[in-house]
Design goal:
alpha/beta, 11 helices, about 35% helix, about 30% strand, globular
Amino acid sequence: MILFPAIDLKNGQCVRLEQGDMARATVFNLDPAAQARDFETQGFEYLHVVDLDGAFAGKPVNAQAVESMLATIKMPVQLGGGIRDLKTVEAWLAKGIARVIIGTAAVRDPALVKEAAKKFPGKVAVGLDARDGKVAVEGWAETSTVTALEIAQRFEDAGVAAIIFTDIARDGLLKGINWDATIALADSISIPVIASGGLASIDDIKAMLEPRAAKLEGAISGRALYDGRIDPAEALKLIKQAA
């Protein structure tokens, strides 16, 4: 089970949004590379990064910040935001990203996901961000008509490394992960699922380690780590003991 610390990039800075709203952004660190190094020093083993500007622009925007992180840390990085074509997938993997996350294009262009996952086994994840069960796209600015499960099922045999499932209603609000919806999704597909959106306290870490959550690959934590609501040492110790 992996606890992924999150770095969301806006204008080259580390921010957290509330419910995906760019107007409700809190800046937590002006130096993403320093923040990444802090997470690595704390003992985290895998970093989750989102290029928020890229998600809206449909192409990478915060590349410089991402590259500075890659030059600073040794732990693997998974990256999402603005990855809409094979060329961008290839470019990020060539730069040292361990796993790319395809979100909007997974809804609009499922063939891209299948092609990328086939070409780069184990290096392509799908980001499914749901609002009232329906998947949102374009940096959450638009809501589609399909459910997260419907999209996830399209990629069952495609070789996708993971599904990152976010409940937008909870994201950045510290309301706790929507474990019921996340675990239901994990139980319905064979692809590993990563929980995201609203992780609030050590209780969420404990919930992630319960037997019913055994199919999950882990969870992503953002604001709770920045706010000090979760002690990294305590969280990582619990995960290690459960292993």
